[in-house]
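User: We ran a pulldown and think these components assemble together. Before we commit to crystallization trials, I'd like a predicted model of the whole complex to look at. Sequences follow.
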Amino acid sequence: MISTNFTGVVSTKRLIKQTLSMIILMFALIGFGATAQASIEVYEFDNPSQEAQYKGLIEEFRCPKCQNQNLAGSDSQISQDLKRKTYEMVMAGQSDAQIREYMYERYGDFISYKPPVRPSTWILWYFPPLILLLLVAGWLLRTKARDRKQVTTVQATEGTQQTATTHNSELDKVGANLSSEEAQKLKALLKEHSNKDLSNKE
Amino acid sequence: MSDPIMSKSQFKVWFLIPLIVFAGLLIMFFMRLGKPTEVVFDNALNRPVPSFDLPLLSDPSKNMTNADLPNTPFLINVWGSWCPTCIVEHPFLMQLHKQGVPLVGVNYKDEVENANGYLADGGDPFLFSVRDYSGSFAIDLGLTGAPETFVVDSKGNIRQHIIGEVAEENWQARIEPCVSLLTELGNKKADLDSPDTVKSIAEVCK
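Assistant: Here's a predicted model for the assembly, 408 residues in total across the polymer chains.
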């Protein structure tokens, strides 16, 4: 009894000790992380809009060395330099467009994740909306044409519902100006489709 | 698709489209397998060397400008004593120096003592080196990292951009043909800006 209690106390003490050391280590790591963070970027801005401009731009520009990262996410030499350059240009009161132009001039359009609108990039910017417009237009035209066709078929079916004989005589009249073979084919087709529409309706 | 006039064969063609698109993509992706995925930044090409006014490494009191560059085709090599690949390529640069290839060094983001110590240890293959401590000249060159090498023609236009080290292999295959063509054109005093010449240079100086 006593011995088990004793070991229990010991293990609790050990647990507390371990937890304490863990907590100390954690704080030490947090402190270390904070200082490491602080040593990377210490840019000061005159106003929040400059900071927002800077942050927006380094999000937008690509790191030339590590090509699937942006400047904001990269810590390579060239990224640090380009970030500093961006900061300097922001502080000098240059506009987004001017800073972008500076980067395009030296590194080409690929430096930005947001390509500029130029004749060479028109296809990139305007092709998707254009094809969307074309598709919507095509779809509209198609549905309109189909609606018109449906109206005529419905009229024909109404006729069939009233009297089968009228419908038959109507069918006889259709294709009077065709050869007998063609007329038969047409009749067969019309019959098939009017029946289908009927069954769909019911 | 409820168009009653549309025949069955037309339906089949429509259904085939996704398959055709898929096959096309498959071919496209297959062709790119194993090819380099890095995009090469070559905006510096076919333009004059960006203007610079930088201190000389061997004598920081003296500044060098574009006017001090050689009149013959030469290589600009961006290096730093901190850069491991530069150390790897250095012996080959010494070899080129012995062959008489003009090299201009850009000491990139380096400390003077370290840079001079590096050249004292491994030899100095450069006609001269300028000090780009801030890295701003490198940005004007469109640098992505060290080492990088630029081939410049006799009129001071950049014609080739080599990312990474220069070694026997790419010297023989890529760089030497470019340098010898530029030398030949320089000797003939050819018009380097005429579209035909630019095209033939671009073909060789890939």
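The mean pLDDT of chain A is 77. That may be worth checking against your pulldown data before setting up trials.

User: Thanks, that helps.
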